[in-house]
Specification:
With about 400 residues, the protein is mainly α. The protein is built from 20 helices and no strands. α5 runs antiparallel to α6. About 35% of the residues are buried.
């Protein structure tokens, strides 16, 4: 995320604004694409070829899928294309392992691997988000007859404000925004600048003030219970200011250009249950998980399980995948399972309590202010405990959780 704030980002933003303002409508899209590709290429001249090859293969596969009637062949092409996209995403994320392997091969194999562009891929969060966009395109091709033009498709994938870490738009929705786009406007530039400045304050003032007090800088073995609890609280607030600040910068930059991207945050820490939290936190990604993973998985499981069991199983699986998408470590997996179990428990609670109390009494209970306060407290504490697995190595995170719940020693 830190690469977003490099000087190059703002240079590319200014260039896109200037050229989009003075060139014709179709040339503006060329400027957006050229700026995006140049920005990716700036760190390593080899990376852009790999990204383009994968993207073009997915584009051809999508066009082929749209031309064919439903059947085994179409499903097979879709699965192969998706497997290719996510295999490359996994390979790029596992760069350190690949470099160790390459160095053991001798004869400059590690250097050749470096020159192949995998280094640049691994160094940018954009590959994981590119995989999300490619998946959206490939799956949506099953249900849409209208073709997405190659130019619109590439701008959708590489649109530079959102390339590194979202928000994740849908391909045809983004195409419609491009079609209606007439370049920067003064009113949009003013609104965009205001949003961008808000993001800079969140990132460089609020988040940076909190950072020294988070769990990342706590000596677990010597810290008091109070220090650990305050460190967890500080990290919970820090990661919100950091990520929502990033989103404000991206949305502000895109608004200044004249293209509105989807919102990513809507007061998530004020929500009164975990499901509501996930509808308001990283909203574009949560929506992606809902549409492309949870719903198909839940539908498939419902053929052999009850609807409630299918939903609970799909929730836990979806959030486990969500954790691994953030990083291929046990800490991220535990974080995903933590939220999956919480969401599953909430789904069971919503199913059981109304049947016990009656729907009318349950609605009355939910409307009571003390009930809402209790729901907010439980949700915020659960989310904050989950961030511990984000902030620290697995062993340290486990020790912190043990200490917070009164098991003084924890695992050594």
């Amino acid at each position: 995320m830190s690469q977003l704030y490099a000087l190059e980002f703002f240079v590319f933003l200014v260039l896109a604004l200037v050229f989009a303002a003075v060139l014709g409508d179709r040339r503006r899209e060329v400027i957006l694409l050229a700026t995006a590709l140049f920005g990716i290429c700036a760190s390593n001249e080899y990376v852009i070829s790999g990204l383009l090859v994968v993207s073009l293969i997915a584009f051809v596969a999508g066009c082929w899928i749209q031309q064919r009637q439903p059947g085994v062949a179409r499903t097979a092409v879709l699965l192969v294309a998706l497997a290719s996209v996510w295999s490359l995403a996994v390979v790029s994320a596992r760069y350190d392992w690949l470099m160790d392997l390459g160095s053991g091969l001798g004869d400059g194999a590690g250097d050749r691997l470096l020159r192949s562009g995998i280094v640049a891929w691994a160094s940018r969060a954009g590959v994981s988000f590119l995989a999300l966009r490619l998946t959206s395109y490939l799956v949506d091709c099953l249900f849409r007859d209208e073709r997405l033009g190659l130019g619109d498709y590439l701008v959708y994938l590489f649109y530079f404000p959102a390339f590194l870490a979202g928000p994740v738009d849908r391909p045809w929705a983004f195409r419609d925004k491009l079609s209606a786009w007439h370049g920067p406007r003064l009113s949009g530039a003013i609104r965009g600048a205001d949003r961008l400045l808000t993001g800079l304050v969140k990132k460089f003032v609020l988040a940076d003030i909190l950072l020294p007090y988070t769990l990342a800088d706590v000596a677990v073995g010597h810290a008091s219970w109070t220090s650990l609890a305050l460190g967890a609280l500080a990290y919970s607030l820090y990661i919100y200011w950091e990520f929502s600040g990033y989103t404000d910068i991206v949305l502000g930059a895109s608004t200044a250009i004249g293209i509105e991207l989807p919102e990513n945050f809507n007061r998530p820490y004020l929500q009164t249950d975990l499901s509501a939290f996930w509808r308001c936190w990283h909203m574009s990604f949560s929506s992606w998980l809902q549409d492309y993973l949870f719903q198909p998985l839940s539908l498939g499981l419902s053929r052999s399980l009850s609807p409630l069991s299918a939903a609970v199983s799909a929730l836990i699986t979806t959030m486990a995948v969500c954790g691994l998408w953030h990083g291929y470590t046990m800490g991220f997996l535990v974080w995903g399972l933590h939220h999956g179990i919480g969401l599953a428990a909430h789904r069971l609670y919503q199913s059981i309590l109304p049947s016990r109390l009656g729907r009318r009494r349950y609605r009355t209970l939910r409307a009571q202010r003390p009930y809402q306060w209790a729901g907010w407290a439980v949700t915020f504490v659960w989310v904050t405990l989950g961030w511990i697995w984000f902030a620290m190595p697995l062993a340290d995170a486990w020790r912190v959780c043990c200490r917070l719940f009164g098991f003084e020693g924890g695992p050594q």
